[in-house]
């Protein structure tokens, strides 16, 4: 896959479900994921890793226990490892995530929103 050209917008067009990240490509030991978000996710942490959000379209709020971080198109925010957070988006958001391979979307929370990483065809 490292020799393939991938188009982010085309990849996002192929995603129909919210909160289901798909691997776009990998860089060293990190996955670059595309995802559509809508509604409120679950409160969770990633004890072993930071999590980078890059919003491509829409407005995303990353709720932290001590503040809310508001992101719009082209905004980047890194949730530090071990920091409890809960993303929410009243309207659809399209985003890129950068995380180490194997990072689970619900972190330590688990539950029915946990998604196996999906591959784009």
TrEMBL record:
Sequence segments annotated as region (Disordered): 102-121
Q: Which residues form the Cupin type-2 domain?
A: 39-95
Q: Which domain of life is it from?
A: Bacteria
Entries under Pfam families matching the protein: Cupin_2
The membrane spanning regions, by residue number, are: none
Signal peptide span per the entry?
A: none
Q: Which CDD domains match?
A: cupin_YdbB-like
| InterPro entries per UniProt | Cupin_2, PKS_Associated_Protein, RmlC-like_jellyroll, RmlC_Cupin_sf
List, alphabetically, the SUPFAM superfamilies matched: RmlC-like cupins
Entry's PANTHER family?
16.7 KDA PROTEIN IN WHIE LOCUS (PTHR36114)
What name has this protein been given in UniProt?
Answer: Cupin domain-containing protein
Question: What organism, scientifically named, is this protein from?
Answer: Gryllotalpicola daejeonensis
Its lineage opens with: Bacteria, Bacillati, Actinomycetota, Actinomycetes, Micrococcales
